[in-house]
Each structure stands twice: as structure tokens, then as C-alpha cells.
């Protein structure tokens, strides 16, 4: 049995021990554990979306980006440029990177966390983006849509940092 499959099998028993549940994003080889009561939203087709039951607003979206062979910190900048170009085309306000800091998950994945807002550097944040590089140079993003709920942001971020696992072949 492959190591990733064994890990998934073992983590599948975690809900019995900690009341958490593991979610596997198969096409990326990503696994993350969230508190019991979270669900995968299969109706949302952009990435892999997770949210607490009965809460479709606050959520986590895991998706592959178009970035390859750049650092996660460069992906933060490039992604914001792409988003702001799209927002400009539909006459919506630009997003602002309020902060960008390096992160390392407990499993050893290096990445970059960007805190995003829309009302300038002093405005409130609404989104956290975590960018991680896969072994083949592709970058994937874990977006935490918290809309100013800092308790949710901290809880989701802590789960990402503590439980995100990437199949090294991915």
C-alpha cells in the first residue's frame, strides 16, 4: 500500500478519536482535516470547497492556480494582479494585500499567507490565501473566506497549518 494511501486510511479514523474529519482533494493529492460538522460542497465546481454545515458563506476553497515554477510569495503578487485586472473590467474595487508572510505547515510544506482586503491598507480583511508549491512546481491555493470573522479565520488557518498534507508526488 502506498504511503499516501496509508496516511489517508489512518486519518480516516481520526474522527473517532478527535471528532475531526479528513477531506481529500484527489486531483491535487492534498489532504486537510477540519472539525466535525464540515462538509464538501460538491455543487461548487471551482476547486474543492469546504464549509461548516448550514454556512455557505464562510468557507475554504482549495484549487490549483495557473502559476508554475515561481515562489509562493510571487504567486501572491501575480494572483492579486490577475484578480484586480478582472475586477477592473467589471468596475469593481481592487483588492489589497494587507499582509503577506511565509508559513510552514506541520507536515513541512512551505508556503505564503496573504491577508486580503478591499478598502485600502487600513480596511478590514475578508479573505486569507495560502499558496503552496507542489513538487512539480505548480502552485495551489487554499482560500479562507472569512468576511471579517477573525475567529473563523484563525480556526481555519490553524487547521490548515496543523493538518494540511501534500502527497510528495503531486
What is the CATH homologous superfamily assignment?
Answer: Mog1/PsbP, alpha/beta/alpha sandwich
Tell me the fraction of residues in β-strands, as a range: 35-45%
Major β-sheet strand ordering: 3-4-5-9-8-7-6
Major pleated sheet: 7 strands, antiparallel
User: What structural class do you assign from the helix and strand content?
Assistant: alpha+beta
General shape: globular
Description:
The chain has 170 residues and is α+β, with helices and mostly antiparallel strands. It has a single domain, classed as Protein Transport Mog1p, Chain A (3-Layer(aba) Sandwich), CATH 3.40.1000. The protein has helices spanning 3-12, 14-18, 72-89, 150-163, and strands at residues 20-25, 30-35, 38-40, 48-52, 59-68, 96-104, 110-117, 125-133, 138-145, 165-166. The strands form 2 sheets. A 7-stranded antiparallel β-sheet has the order 3-4-5-9-8-7-6, sandwiched between helices. A 3-stranded antiparallel β-sheet has the order 1-2-10. It is globular and about 40 Å long. The two termini are 17 Å apart. The model is unreliable at 13-18 (pLDDT under 50).
Name some characteristics of this structure.
170 residues; seven-stranded antiparallel β-sheet; alpha+beta; 28% helix; Protein Transport Mog1p, Chain A
Quick gist of this model?
With 170 residues, the chain is of the alpha+beta class. The chain has helices at 3-12, 14-18, 72-89, 150-163; strands at residues 20-25, 30-35, 38-40, 48-52, 59-68, 96-104, 110-117, 125-133, 138-145, 165-166.
